[in-house]
User: What shape does this take?
Amino acid sequence: MDKAVILPERKQYQEIGEDLRAQIIQGHYPVGSRLPPERNIAETYGVSRTIVREALLMLELQGTVDIRQGSGVYVMRIPEEHENEEERFLNSDVGPFEILQARQLLESNIAAFAAKMATRADIDNLRRIIEQEQRAIAADDRSQDNNKMFHLVLAGATQNQMLLATVESVWHHMDSSPLWQQFNAHIASRAYRLKWLGDRQTILAALRRRDVMGAWQAMFQHLENVKKSLLELSDEDAPDFDGYLFESVPLFQGKLV
Assistant: This one.
């Protein structure tokens, strides 16, 4: 007897996105109208605002809504009842917050290890990448992904090929993730690039000092800053939204766990 095929379970953000989509189809939110604030949607469904954020990014990716920073989320079109399942559910994708949480667990520890293992050549390569990004920002040049290059070279500075391969795998997933690319499109401005550049300079300074804990904290804070930026994209109603950040890598008494 053949075994039944078990379909992958939909994630919470997909279920909420589909419910919001159904409400749009049913006429609760006509084209041009604004959806309720994220905080209200989160309270309605009893979930965190990070899950709501991923649901809205999914709808934006489908072209159903437009997320406008500092204004809100607006309905752009009424989707068809039976649109392509692959486009609607994105079952194979992982939400950006889930990616960031994995990166925070992995890359903070990699930065700490690299602080012990990095060679002079590794430090020089990281410095050159930072200088290259400085020139690219000044010229508004987006032809090279210096952010990705920095993280891969940093992983290589551990002198551990398995760690490098793991980080390469994570970045490959981000490059092929529609949800991540949708998020990344919102933080590609010069202001955000300058912010990430400053974070990388702090990481490099810790590596130069052979400061293991400093390198861990610098990478931890960098990814915390990225998460905060994701939450900031359209939250105009909650000035204290920082308390809604999803669970971060735990620190106990300032020490690694």
User: Anything to note?
Assistant: Confidence is low (pLDDT under 50) at residues 1-9, 84-92, 234-247, 252-257. Residues 22 and 50 are 21 Å apart (CA to CA). The longest strand covers residues 65-68. Strands lie at 65-68, 72-75.
